[in-house]
Amino acid sequence: MDTILVTGSNGQLGSELRVLAEAYPQYNFLFVTRNEMAIDDFETVQQYFATNSIQYCINCAAYTAVDKAEAEVEKAFLINADAVGNLAKLCKRYNTAFIHVSTDYVFDGTATEPIKEEQSTNPIGVYGASKLKGEELALQNNPDSIIIRTSWVYSSFGNNFVKTMLRLMKEKESINVVSDQQGCPTYAADLAAAIMQIVGQYSMFNKQYSIFNYSNAGHITWYDFAVAIKELTGSKCIVNPITTSQYPTPAKRPAYSVLDTSKIQQTFTVLIPEWKDSLKKCLEVLAAAN
Predict the structure, then answer these.
(1) Domain extents for the chain?
(2) H-type helices in 172-261, by residue range?
(3) Are strands 2-7 and 56-59 parallel, antiparallel or unpaired?
(4) Which of 233, 242, 249, 287 has a CA positioned 20 to 30 A from the CA of residue 135?
């Protein structure tokens, strides 16, 4: 029985993989949180690989505090870059397939049409720069790494835009949401399913896979996203569109980060649901939990 190691298993994607694991009894899953195996604790990670037989490593661990990263540069690069490079190196040494999750923030947001994997990167913040360095170190240390860039991730787990909007819509009569940033929402449950499809097909493809984009189909603004949440939940809260300049943050966000997902669909026959269908599913899960 092949063993799959999932790092950062308390995060949104890690939690969705934990739910999905029940549908994959043919694999032995090892879910580790930061407390059990911090990926930036190189000695512990090395010991873990030495004592466990691992066929697949799915790295969901990351430093994701985009604004905080502007002040915590060293920490962001340690977790998002150095630790990723180390994981990739260990996966190569132990013949473990390495699947690493990256971000749309490696781009600067100046594109005007869906971004392909091979387009030039140019991060505009520390978070994006640290994630890009992680990609580079992964491929440098282990050219067989699979890197999946995703965007606007949300889930019934953890903290995210959907859950924040639901809370604010209960607390306030009106809210302001940025309407001049375009992107693709990604339901973490869909991304988890896509990753498990890749695991299932891994042995059928040549190595040198490198980088793939994954997000739900269709693209919207954060304002559109909030309006959809309002409509699907029947909220009476008024949603007002505002510009990025009216909502200043320590870190800049890409104005346009719509990802072209045709490569992952063609390579792994991954089916990608429409963003609104997936949002409905997530809202149903959240409603059932309350």
Answers:
(1) 2-160+184-217+257-273
(2) 188-201, 222-233
(3) parallel
(4) 249
pLDDT in tens, 209-255: 689 999 999 999 999 999 999 999 999 999 999 999 999 999 999 99
**Per-residue tokens: 155:** 């889930």
Q: What is the C-alpha separation between 197 and 191, in angstroms, rounded?
A: 10
Q: Domain 2-160+184-217+257-273 classified CATH 3.40.50.720?
A: yes
Sheet containing 27-32, strands listed edge to edge, beginning at the edge strand earlier in sequence: 27-32, 2-7, 56-59, 97-103, 146-150, 210-213
Instruction: Encode pLDDT of 182-195 as tens digits.
Output: 999 999 999 999 99
Query: Which tokens is 84 given?
Result: 């990723």
The CA distance from 62 to 84, in Å, is: 9
How far apart are alpha carbons 281 and 273 in whole angstroms? 11
Rounded Cα gap, residues 92 and 240, in angstroms: 50
Evaluate whether 264 touches 216 at the Cβ level (below 8 Å).
no
Active site residues: 127
Tokens of 136: 């580079």
Phi, psi of 172 (to 5 degrees): -120, 155
Query: Per DSSP, what are the bridge partners of residue 220?
Result: 183
Q: CA 203 → CA 26, 143, 165, 238, distances in Å? A: 15, 16, 41, 51
pTM > 0.70: yes
Q: 151 CB contacts (<8 Å, ≥6 apart)?
A: 103, 104, 183, 184, 185, 186, 215, 257, 259
